[in-house]
Design goal:
Largest sheet: 10 strands, mixed
Number of helices: 10
Radius of gyration: 19 Å
Oligomer: single chain
Helix content: 25-40%
Order of helices and strands: EEEHEHEEEHEHEHEHHEEEHHHE
Strand order of the largest sheet: 5-4-1-8-9-10-11-12-13-14
Distance between the termini: 32 Å
Shape: globular
Number of strands: 14
Length: about 300
């Protein structure tokens, strides 16, 4: 079983406006509501690939109920902890001649609520996957990822961590199965700028020396590179297509990679399916549907260094 954790999920309220004005009332041309949160995005892609998983995390209030209802309507298996106070945040995304994002803070989460989630995570079994993705909201302790991995470190769980900075560095000692920085984030971890394949490999291997088993580096227009635990280095580019959406591409890559590995136990296939899912989401209004994933799969191939 794969479990994803989204500590601060959201409803993303997207409004399209012809031209954004600051001297008068703006009226939208259309509005759309999406569920959001990096772990949730991973769960959606896994579900669309037919891989059993469960989305965990915190929800609150009427917005939390709506988010949960939307996920269940789309066939996403979820088991959120319901907070007694506050509401799940609503992020406002305005798309006009410019784009404006306003992300809310989210509800306060008490220590007792954190402990309830940790107790639920105790049910994860040996061989299961646990995906921790995204930044930690200010309403939670900054070491929450570290606390989770420390609690589960002797249970044989495969940890997948998509985070940045100290949030990532502090969990490497627990030997996560996969970490997924982009090439900018990889360089930032070591105070350098990574430009070449050789530089990316060098610093990805440093993460392996610090504990990571597999390092997947997303590279924007240059595709992605995987340095696996067996010493293999695999590269893949991007498919030809029109960029429609950049939100959720990295999460889609994580979901595709985990699905690909579970299906085949082959790292090259995992990278290919991960890249396919990231590209398919980039070509879609929201997260990629199965039909788009299948279409893009035939457009991408992989190379080994």
């Amino acid at each position: 079983m794969i479990y994803t954790v989204t500590l601060n999920p959201a409803l993303d309220y997207v409004m399209k406006v012809g031209s954004l004005r600051y001297d008068d009332i703006n009226r939208s041309e259309s509005e759309t509501m999406y569920y959001g949160g990096k772990g949730i995005n991973v769960s959606v892609i896994l579900s669309r690939l037919g891989v059993e998983n469960k989305a965990l995390g915190f929800v609150a209030g009427f917005t939390g109920k709506e988010l949960e209802d939307m996920l269940k309507k789309d066939g996403i298996n979820c088991d959120f902890n319901h907070l007694e106070n506050g509401i799940t945040r609503i992020n406002v995304k305005i798309k006009a001649d410019t784009e404006l994002d306003i992300n809310a803070q989210g509800p306060d989460i008490s220590e007792s609520e954190i402990n309830k989630l940790l107790e639920k995570l105790d049910g994860i079994k040996e061989g299961d996957f646990l995906v921790l993705a995204g930044s930690v909201p200010s309403t939670l302790p900054s070491d929450i990822y570290e606390r989770i991995l420390k609690r589960l470190k002797d249970k044989g769980v495969n940890f997948v961590v998509d985070a940045t900075g100290d949030l990532l560095l502090n969990v490497l000692k627990y030997k996560p199965f996969l970490v997924k920085p982009n090439h900018h984030e990889l360089g930032d971890l070591f105070g350098v700028v990574t430009k070449t394949d050789e530089e990316i490999q060098e610093y990805a291997r440093k993460l392996q020396e610090m504990g990571a088993r597999n390092v997947l580096v997303s590279r924007s227009k240059d595709g992605a590179m995987l340095i696996d635990e067996n010493g293999g280095v695999f590269k893949i580019g991007n498919a030809e297509g029109k960029l429609v959406n950049s939100v959720g591409c990295g999460d889609s890559m994580v979901g595709g990679f985990v699905a690909g590995y579970i299906q085949s136990k082959d790292y090259s296939h995992a990278l290919r399916l991960g890249a396919v899912c990231g590209n398919a989401t980039a070509f879609s209004e929201g997260l990629a549907e199965k039909e788009e994933i299948d279409r893009v799969y035939d457009l991408l191939d992989i190379s080994k260094s």
